[in-house]
Specification:
heterodimer, A: alpha+beta, 13 helices, B: alpha/beta, 6-stranded mixed sheet, 4-stranded antiparallel sheet, 10 strands
């Protein structure tokens, strides 16, 4: 079928302007496909990194227990009004034994034992309520990548140091190295030095969150043993539900996957993915319609020639192959050109590592170049089948007489 | 010794249905012997072109039988007819009908290349020989669109002869040429007929062309009348 390909190439090169326009049209479609893939993929990754990426993928938290009733009365009903004790923190007292087991589970990237609680940061007459998390000093960035959000100081947590958000620092006029007073909701307070200021971009987080070392937290929250919770980071965050179930089975501790509380986020990502798929499908359909209409026009214009070919004993299959080859060549060349343009344009955007808020989160590695070229070629071949069949059915007698 | 190449018996061809039905060929009988140089004469609408089209296997008759080289062509499939046409029948049309995006040589070797799937050197050699014989040695690689009318028609004759067919059907091959070019084309046809024994059936209105053929077949109202 080399000869059929030669004829296909000859037909395409015979009208260079029309073919160039057609190939360029296909290339634009492929470019849109690639751009959308990179944008939707990059956006999804960005959103995941900014949300679930900084979340605990699986959390083990001690279940709060109701205080025991001290006046048992099986015969009578007692109305007991009790205010919830917000200072009372549930504990995972035996967690140490389970940490090595959990860290050995497949897909577990890191574990972080934490003591959490509330408190007030004070500076003169000013006071701000804060959420306090005590972290192991060597696992400061295990769950939330605090290092990457640090704008001043160091992310290292030692005894007597505190990391605070930028908004909180501004509200309280705190500077790096300044000594501040933190009063925990247990009533215990401590003087701490601001060793770092972070900015996550999340208003509430930057205004209310403070990190201290686990040792400091033990003192402030009166918890000499155990922790409030364990947060676990996974290599594949979509594996959270399965890993949580595995942890529960192995340890008997209540493990919650992040997906349990992130249905909206997952729905949004799914909708975003579907929107991208729809746009890419439209681009592909445009390519198919463009190629099909151009080849149909070519078929009509070349009817007399096709008639002559048929009169000279050219099989219908040969005619079909000539037109399908034209579709394939247009698809392949347009696909390669579109992919090259797409890659060059995407090069102008910041890489994932260089990405900063305010930029389009485009990921050049998610351009789906191979798929774009393959789908375009297949699409163009599919588009050429109708014109090719039409060409093969040309009646030589009628066509020669035209 | 001449052999019967084409054998047509009780051939009918009609177009349309009901009141619009037109009977073009009526009970037509025709035999062509191998090596004949025949002219097909008749007024417009007599059925010459329809007969030529049926003989070229481009159209099936309504009824009757048509066999060539002993093969019944009225019952053959489209694929069989296509292959038969490629191997055994050559066409020369009034309007040369060359492929415009191809050179003279590419046009000539097309029937062989399409069968073999590529342009073999042997085909290229034969194509060059044919064009040289047609007096077009200096036009071999010319784009067909750059050739004169007479040159185009000579390329068309060369193309018809490329696969060494037993029968060449020519529909008014000189109808669109000046007298000098027409003479050149007829001279070449006569020469090939004599040298290679190729059978020619030439449809024409021109009595001077017809007289250059050894046999004149007259068709009138769908029948062979002489």
């Amino acid at each position: 079928m080399l000869y059929a390909i030669k004829i296909a190439v000859r037909y395409l090169t015979a009208n260079k302007a029309q073919t160039s326009l057609l190939v360029f049209g296909v290339a634009v479609g492929v470019f849109i496909f690639i751009f959308m893939s990179a944008l939707i993929g990059g956006l999804a990754e960005f959103i995941m990194a900014r949300t679930a990426g900084d979340l605990s993928h699986v959390t083990i938290e001690a279940e709060s227990q109701d205080p025991p009733l001290l006046i048992p009365s099986p015969a009578e009903t007692i109305l007991l009004v009790q205010q919830k004790d917000s200072t009372r923190t549930a504990q995972l007292s035996t967690i140490d034994a389970f940490i090595p087991i959990m860290e050995a589970l497949p897909g577990v990237l890191a574990t972080s034992q934490q003591i959490t609680g509330g408190g007030f940061l004070k500076h003169g007459a000013l006071a701000r309520q804060v959420s306090v998390t005590g972290l192991e000093p060597d696992k400061v960035s295990a769950i939330v990548n605090l290092k990457s959000y640090l704008i001043e100081g160091s992310a290292e947590l030692g005894t007597g140091t505190i990391l605070i958000g930028k908004t909180l620092a501004e509200d309280m006029s705190f500077r790096l190295g300044q000594t501040v007073r933190l009063q925990a909701d247990t009533g215990i307070d401590a003087s701490l030095i601001v060793s770092g200021i972070f900015e996550t971009g999340s208003g509430g987080y930057d205004r209310r969150q403070a990190y201290i070392s686990l040792a400091t937290a033990r003192t402030l929250f009166a918890m000499p043993q155990g922790v409030s919770k364990v947060e676990i980071k996974l290599t594949d965050l979509y594996d959270a539900a399965a890993t949580a179930a595995r942890i529960e089975a192995v340890t008997g501790l209540p493990a919650t996957p992040w997906t349990e509380n992130a249905a909206q986020l997952l729905d949004a990502l799914k909708a975003q993915g579907q929107t991208g798929l729809l746009l890419k499908t439209f681009a592909l359909v445009t390519i198919i319609i463009g190629v099909a209409s151009a080849l149909l026009l070519s078929t009509y214009r070349r009817r007399p020639e096709i008639g002559i070919m048929r009169a000279m004993g050219t099989p219908r299959s040969f005619v079909i192959f000539v037109f399908v080859s034209q579709g394939a060549i247009i698809g392949l060349v347009g696909g390669l050109l579109g992919a090259a343009i797409g890659y060059l344009v995407l090069l102008m955007f910041p890489t994932r590592e260089e990405f900063r808020p305010g930029n389009l989160p485009i990921d050049i590695t998610q351009g789906a170049y191979g798929i774009a070229i393959l789908l375009t070629t297949i699409g163009a071949i599919a588009a050429s089948i109708l014109p090719a069949r039409s060409a093969s059915r040309v009646d030589p007698v009628t066509a020669i007489g035209q | 010794m001449n052999h019967s190449l084409v054998d047509v018996r009780e051939l009918y061809k009609s177009f349309g249905h009901g009141e619009a039905k037109t009977q073009v060929l009526k009970n037509l009988d025709l035999t062509l012997q191998t090596g004949e140089l025949s002219a097909l004469l008749g007024p417009s609408g007599s059925g010459k072109s329809t007969l030529l089209t049926i003989l070229g296997t481009l159209m099936q008759p309504t009824s009757g039988s048509y066999s060539m080289l002993g093969t019944d062509l009225t019952t053959a499939s489209d694929h069989e007819l296509t292959t038969f046409r490629n191997l055994h029948i050559g066409f020369v049309f009034q309007f040369h009908n060359l492929l415009p995006d191809f050179t003279a040589l590419e046009n000539v070797i097309f029937p062989t290349a399409v069968r073999e799937g590529r342009e073999r050197p042997s085909a290229v050699t034969r194509g060059r020989e044919l064009l040289t014989r047609m007096g077009l040695a200096n036009r071999i690689d010319f784009p067909s669109t750059k050739l004169s009318g007479g040159q185009k028609q000579r390329v068309a004759v060369a193309r018809a002869l490329m696969n060494k067919p037993e029968l060449v059907l020519a529909d008014e091959p000189t109808g669109n040429l000046d007298k000098e070019s027409a003479n050149q084309v007829m001279e070449l046809i006569g020469q090939i007929n004599r040298d290679e024994g190729t059978t020619f059936l030439i449809s024409t209105h021109d009595e001077s062309i017809a007289t250059r053929c050894r046999r004149q077949i007259r068709v009138d109202e769908g029948r062979v009348t002489g």
